[in-house]
What does this fold into?
Amino acid sequence: MKIELTKEQLNRQKEFREFADDAVVPYAAQNDREERLDPELIERVKERGYLGSMLPQEYGGMGWDWVTIGLLNEEIGRGCSSLRSLLTVHGMVALALLRWGSEEQRSRWLPKMAAGEVIGAFALTEPEVGSDAKNVQSVAAASDDNYVINGRKKWITMGQIADLYLIFAKCEGKPTAFLVERGTPGFSADPITGMLGARASMLAELHLADCIIPQENMVGSVGTGLSHVALHCLDYGRYTVACGCVGLGQACLEQSVRYSRQRKQFGKALRENQLIQKMITEMAVNVKAARLLCYHAGYLKDVMDPDSIMETWTAKYFASKMVNQAASDAVQIHGANGCSHDYPVERYMRDARINEIIEGTSQMHEMLIALHTIRQMQP
Ligand SMILES: Cc1cc2nc3c(=O)[nH]c(=O)nc-3n(C[C@H](O)[C@H](O)[C@H](O)COP(=O)(O)OP(=O)(O)OC[C@H]3O[C@@H](n4cnc5c(N)ncnc54)[C@H](O)[C@@H]3O)c2cc1C
It folds into this structure.
């Protein structure tokens, strides 16, 4: 068996790396400080077609394979976790529509989403409901040809700037997905600031107060909100988060190697110290292992193997834990400098922390992977 990127994937990887080094890395600290993505940066991402990276060409997307999508998220994640979050949530909404949307919804929204004229946000979590998503408290009630939605959504990435929200609410007592456009009467988005990490993700709390939307804004059918719509988009979400963690882990490694070359203690460079070398070794090996899990998950998606879903859970679980250790060690290698804004590793550590919470916490992954493994091994 040979795991090797194709020539085209290698070319794309080079393009993504150059873009990240040129347009993303230099501005990540500023994004973090200002708690927003620079609109010019978003423009550059749009121009490159990256907001359509997950969509087929018939809708104006790039039509890339999953491994290439993973490479993009790895490189963007190496530069700025919040920008990678934009690709994640926007893509989740786009893919929900591609898979479960009506023909009318697809032709209306997908070309605009591919071009980045419309930004999507995924709104499942509520103040009182996180991991236990099937118990969402928001309610959608049928009224004539409309639905009236009432409820609140919290921690919604890009909620401050999105144009189109995929909202999950109980309809006839069952979780169901709906599209709500910014500007709909009764809808408002309050910014959430002061987060630990991914601080430029422009989170918002959404309020839906007698928010009336047309019947045709339901995505899928009554009761399929979690079992079909969210399941599908969360798979993409987990995949892109896992790949983003690989990129962030790579950034920790590169910065640690750079610093340990320059910094001298006891008359020699830190890198000559075997205890420092151990941390660098673990980082290098674990980043590589996480990358291979991501490549494998991407490959399985490309060949439409149903095991790709569990491989994605595995990749996300491993990569998000890996990056927390890598970022913590990167700070350790930097000593006090690592605790200051003078070096990026403190931001890496804060950003890393978020990844064990989003798209299913580590504990949810542990429960699911264990159940799946036990079931598979039954005689
Ligand atoms: C930066 C950021 C961005 C986000 N963006 C979005 C977004 O765009 N859209 C969106 O819908 N949500 C978003 N979220 C919310 C995120 O999806 C939730 O935080 C996540 O699902 C966990 O829910 P919770 O925070 O309510 O934790 P809870 O579900 O309350 O869990 C708290 C802790 O208990 C553990 N736990 C819960 N149940 C069990 C159990 N049965 N067994 C063992 N342990 C358990 C959890 O693993 C966790 O450690 C975002 C969150 C953050 C931090």
Summary: The beta strands are 120-123, 139-143, 146-156, 164-171, 174-181, 187-191, 204-214, 218-219, 264-265, 268-269. The longest strand covers residues 146-156.
